Amino acid sequence: MVDTKPGFEWYMRDDGIIVYHFADSRRVTIDKFAETLREHRDAYTAASKAIKRLWYFSDDMMPTPYAVKTAMQLAKEMPPTLRSQIACVLANTRINTMIRYIFTQIDARKDYIHFFDDEASALEWLLTTESPIESP
User: Fold this and answer.
1) 87-103 burial by CB neighbour count: b if 16+ within 10 A, else e?
2) Which residue in 50, 81, 90, 128 is a FRET match for 134, CA 20 to 30 A apart?
3) pLDDT tens digits, one per residue of 10-39
4) CA atoms within 13 Å, Cβ hemisphere of 78
5) What CA–CA distance (Å, rounded) separates 68 from 7?
């Protein structure tokens, strides 16, 4: 039997940081992530609010061609004036290296994505740093 449940979940913390969990990189997971990211992007753009996200990648989250293609498309769709910060927590060194490299290829603006080995450092950066993009 094929598992059709997405390996992607999200929730909002009390401090407003949106947390994304990636359990795998199956097409159903990437599609759910893209749908959710677009909803968040549109809501925060309409409200002219900064968006801060904390992304967790499991060891099973391998960058597939479909995942990379989708991430590239999502990066192109981001409004240049949206104040955005993403802290990626990647405990696995192998996956950390691959995902860092892919993000450098996806988006020329690299100042809003930072990579961390642990949650505490990621949260500290999100809570103490303002997005480098100004509001419109």
Assistant:
1) bbbbeeeebbebbeeeb
2) 90
3) 999 999 999 999 999 899 999 999 999 999
4) 21
5) 16
Name the domain count of the chain: 1
Task: List phi, psi (to 5°) of 39.
Answer: -60, -45
- 39: enclosing H helix or E strand: helix 27-46
CB 128 within 8 A of CB 114: no
Task: Return d(Cα 21, Cα 14) in angstroms, integer.
Answer: 17
CATH number at residue 99: 3.30.750.24
pLDDT tens-digit map of 68-110: 889 888 888 888 788 889 999 987 666 767 677 777 766 655 6
Length of the chain: 136
Backbone angles phi, psi at 59, to 5 degrees: -65, -20
Provide the domain limits for residue 122. 8-128
